[in-house]
């Protein structure tokens, strides 16, 4: 590949056209509208068989959407949630695949319909003021009617049936989980308490080793669970609510506490469940004493009662009241004084 250099007065070929620019001259302020190139008809425009084949493909895509919705409904009732990780994983995977095919079928069918069956002639419209008069509104309605006529939906019975079926069934993927809980456990008081009780030792996660206050150095972070958590037969969600993050600060760095007497010699314990949407807060920055939620970047100041300093969370992390027993082990003084995690309909704050 070679490059030829010339002076400014020599013509240069750009896109098949000669463009001459002399020193002191400027290019044109506007270029003429080149217009549209020659229209190239699609196979479906000139071959009836190709047109029918495209129609069958669109019908098949809508059928995939219907099957995805049916699969979602079947999975919702066929896979019971017993609180185990396996059942949750199987349910989420099945429901997710059903929902994906339901949406994917509708979306790809609509795109394929527009690209292969509807009019593809290029059109241009000059910009104008957004406000429109009565005549322009009538023209807009006429354009919509022309679009419906162009889609030929009135003359394609099978295609119309597939479209209506997929759109009519798809809302089941949204409505069913909402109404499916009718008759289930609506006791919201369980959201207001966790497994922490007075005197329960704080142990390391996941080993379950009790923690002595003397073993926690300034700046260290320990992931904490209640003593005996692994041996209990509590549901998985109850175990998840009890996880705690323990941090030891220099007492001089503590600006304020949520509750007086909830910490011990600079050791503070806060719920790991973010008050935004419940993600685990686990990233600690030692210099700023900030805890970061990796999901949506909510940031909490451990030295200031875990108050929110950045992000979408609206409330501080609940603080677990702690003290030490006669042997120097860290123990809880009781449960959290407020519900952990995001809001629910009976939460006051």
- What coarse outline follows from CA principal-axis ratios? elongated
Between the first and last Cα atoms, what is the distance in angstroms?
A: 70 Å
Q: Indicate the CATH architecture of the largest domain.
A: 3-layer Sandwich
Give the averaged pLDDT, no decimals.
83
Rg (CA only): 33 Å
- Taking pLDDT < 50 over at least 5 consecutive residues as the criterion, the unreliable ranges are 1-18
Annotated CATH topology of the largest domain: Rieske Iron-sulfur Protein
**Secondary-structure class:** alpha+beta
User: What portion of the residues fall into strands of 2 or more residues?
Assistant: 5-15%
Strand order of the largest sheet: 3-4-5-6
Helix fraction, binned, reads 25-40%
Total helix count? 7
Q: Please, how many domains?
A: 2
How many beta-strand segments?
12
CATH top level assignment of the largest domain: Mainly Beta
Give the topology string: H per helix, E per strand: EEHHHHHHEEHEEEEEEEE
Q: What can be said about the biggest beta sheet?
A: 4 strands, antiparallel
Fourth-tier CATH superfamily name of the largest domain: Rieske [2Fe-2S] iron-sulphur domain
Pfam families: QcrA_N, Rieske
Protein name: Cytochrome bc1 complex Rieske iron-sulfur subunit
Membrane topology: Multi-pass membrane protein
Cofactor: [2Fe-2S] cluster
Question: Would you kindly provide a written description of the structure presented here, covering whatever features stand out?
Answer:
One of its GO terms (molecular function) is 2 iron, 2 sulfur cluster binding. The protein is an alpha+beta fold and 349 residues long. It has two domains: 43-121 and 143-179; 191-332, Rieske Iron-sulfur Protein, CATH 2.102.10.10. The protein is built from seven helices and twelve strands. It has helices at 43-46, 48-78, 85-116, 134-150, 157-169, 172-179, 236-241; strands at 12-14, 17-19, 202-204, 221-226, 244-248, 267-271, 283-285, 290-292, 299-301, 307-310, 322-324, 330-332. Strand 8 (290-292) and strand 9 (299-301) form a beta hairpin. The relative contact order is 0.09. The model is unreliable at 1-18 (pLDDT under 50).
């Amino acid at each position: 590949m070679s490059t030829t250099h010339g002076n400014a007065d020599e013509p240069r070929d750009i896109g098949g056209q000669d463009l001459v620019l002399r020193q002191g001259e400027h290019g044109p302020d506007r270029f003429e509208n080149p217009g549209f190139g020659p229209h190239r008809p699609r196979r479906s425009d000139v071959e009836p068989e190709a047109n029918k084949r495209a129609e069958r493909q669109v019908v098949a895509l809508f059928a995939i959407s219907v099957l995805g919705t049916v699969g979602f409904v079947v999975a919702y009732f066929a896979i019971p949630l017993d609180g185990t990780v396996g059942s949750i994983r199987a349910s989420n995977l099945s429901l997710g695949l059903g929902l994906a095919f339901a949406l994917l079928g509708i979306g790809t069918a609509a795109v394929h319909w527009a690209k292969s069956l509807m009019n593809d002639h290029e059109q241009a419209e000059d910009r104008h003021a957004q406000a429109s008069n009565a005549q322009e509104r009538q023209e807009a309605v006429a354009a919509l009617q022309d679009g419906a006529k162009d889609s030929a939906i009135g003359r394609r019975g099978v295609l119309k049936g597939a479209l209506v079926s997929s759109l009519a069934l798809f809302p089941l993927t949204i409505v069913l989980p909402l109404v499916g809980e009718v008759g289930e456990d609506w006791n919201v008081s369980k959201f207001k308490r966790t497994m922490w009780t007075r005197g329960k030792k704080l142990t390391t996660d996941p080993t379950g080793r009790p923690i002595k206050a003397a073993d926690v150095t300034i700046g260290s972070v320990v992931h904490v669970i209640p003593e005996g958590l692994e041996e209990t037969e509590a549901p998985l969600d109850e175990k998840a609510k009890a996880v705690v993050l323990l941090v030891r600060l220099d007492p001089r760095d503590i600006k304020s506490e949520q509750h007086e007497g909830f910490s011990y010699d600079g050791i503070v314990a806060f719920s790991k469940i973010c008050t935004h949407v419940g993600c685990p807060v686990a990233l600690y920055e030692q210099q700023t004493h900030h805890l970061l939620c990796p999901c949506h970047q909510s940031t909490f100041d451990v030295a200031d009662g875990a108050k929110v300093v950045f992000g979408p969370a609206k409330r501080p992390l609940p603080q677990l009241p702690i003290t030490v027993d006669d042997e120097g082990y860290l123990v809880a003084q009781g449960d959290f004084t407020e519900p952990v995690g995001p809001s629910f309909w009976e939460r006051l704050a």
